[in-house]
């Protein structure tokens, strides 16, 4: 497991350079005392491993910018990909506050030759806008949700896709969560496209930290959402749901929100899939979300093997 004694650790993502696995993670000092305060103090840390269980912390990847900037409040969750020219791109969420103190999220990126030293690109490259995505003006949600970029190459070689935690401008407040979509030819300039899912009466207010993979020949999208941010019809799911999955015909969607099923309960959040280089085994990671009394815990668990059981992706039992 990866954890820090002096900090809370939560959302995270991976990169594999062929020799080491790289873990990028959000963390904030426990001196804040209130774990809910961590979101506005988040930086992006970095650790490396050769076996996915023993991790060595190295220099941080990114911190917030000086104001005024789209990321002058905090740097949040992202993903890492490598351009064919060898340059690594770290896409991340920049958080800032508007004049009324509401949180606004936008997507930016930084580049690196070695995964260790990162240089931010100026300004955001993607943000919520009409007609497809809800903004603060709707008044239906506590923030302008547009975060957690998951970037991957088009399977047919047609540029790159970005999936985003976003909200539609219509539908029930707790069912407006959609899979935002943007496309790029070069990873630097991004074109907004319509979402790849629709609002639903059996849906979620936010589909956090999406990821799409082909696991043992079957496309699947995973995301996270707790019961407090889902439609009431989801209340009967085992454990309230933490990490969810949607089976699909293609990694390019569309994705049927009504067909989402839980992979973990709310003890584990932000499930991430990673294929182990050494043997091809697919693994599920997550961070420890809450304990038996509902208190935040933090820390990234050791990997759990995943496999298909009928039409559902299932993971092994969490380690203590």
Automatic annotation (TrEMBL):
The lineage of its organism: Bacteria, Bacillati, Actinomycetota, Actinomycetes, Micrococcales. Keywords: Glycosidase, Hydrolase. This is beta-fructofuranosidase. It is an enzyme of class 3 (hydrolase). Residues 19-225 form the Glycosyl hydrolase family 32 N-terminal domain. InterPro entries: GH32_Enzymes, Glyco_hydro_32, Glyco_hydro_32_N, Glyco_hydro_beta-prop_sf. Its EC number is 3.2.1.26. The keyword Metal-binding does not apply. CDD domains: GH32-like (cd18609). GO terms for molecular function: hydrolase activity. Belongs to the glycosyl hydrolase 32 family. It comes from Microbacterium invictum. Gene3D superfamilies: Glycosyl hydrolase domain, family 43 (2.115.10.20).
């Amino acid at each position: 497991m990866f954890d820090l004694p002096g900090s809370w650790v939560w959302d995270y993502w991976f990169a594999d350079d062929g020799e080491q696995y790289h873990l990028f993670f959000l963390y904030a000092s426990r001196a804040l005392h209130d774990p809910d305060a961590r979101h506005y103090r988040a930086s992006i840390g970095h650790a490396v491993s050769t076996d996915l269980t023993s991790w060595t912390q190295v220099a941080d990847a990114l911190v917030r910018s000086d104001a005024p900037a789209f990321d002058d409040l905090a740097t949040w969750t992202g993903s890492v990909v490598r351009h064919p020219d060898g340059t690594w791109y770290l896409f991340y969420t920049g958080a800032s506050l508007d004049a009324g103190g509401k949180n606004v999220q936008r997507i930016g990126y930084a580049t690196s030759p070695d995964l260790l030293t990162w240089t931010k690109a100026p300004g955001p490259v993607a943000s919520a806008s009409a007609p497809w995505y809800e903004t603060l003006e709707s008044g239906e949600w506590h923030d302008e949700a547009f975060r957690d970029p998951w970037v991957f190459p088009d399977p047919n070689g047609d540029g790159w896709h970005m999936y985003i935690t976003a909200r539609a401008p219509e539908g029930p407040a707790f069912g407006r969560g959609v899979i935002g979509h943007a496309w790029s030819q070069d990873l630097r300039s991004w074109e907004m496209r319509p979402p790849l899912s629709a609002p639903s009466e059996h849906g979620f207010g936010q589909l956090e930290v999406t990821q799409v993979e082909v696991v043992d020949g079957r496309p699947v999208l995973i995301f996270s959402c707790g019961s407090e941010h889902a439609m009431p019809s989801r209340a009967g799911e085992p454990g309230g749901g933490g990490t969810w999955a949607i089976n699909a015909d293609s990694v390019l969607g569309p994705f049927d929100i009504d067909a989402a099923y839980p992979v973990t309960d709310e003890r584990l959040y932000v499930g991430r899939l990673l294929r182990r280089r050494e043997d091809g085994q697919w693994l599920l990671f997550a961070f420890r979300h809450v304990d038996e009394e509902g208190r935040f815990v933090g820390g990234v668990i050791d990997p759990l093997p995943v496999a298909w059981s009928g039409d559902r992706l299932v993971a092994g039992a969490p380690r203590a």
